[in-house]
Amino acid sequence: MKTEKRVVAQNKKAYHDYFIEETYEAGIELFGTEVKSIRQGKLNLKDSWCSVVEGEIFINGMHVSPYEQGNIFNKDPMRVRKLLMHKKEIIKLFSLVKQDGYSLIPLSVYFVGSKVKIEIGLCKGKKLHDKRATDAERSAKRDIERAMKDRQHD
Question: How distant is the alpha carbon of residue 66 from its chain centre?
Answer without folding.
Answer: 20
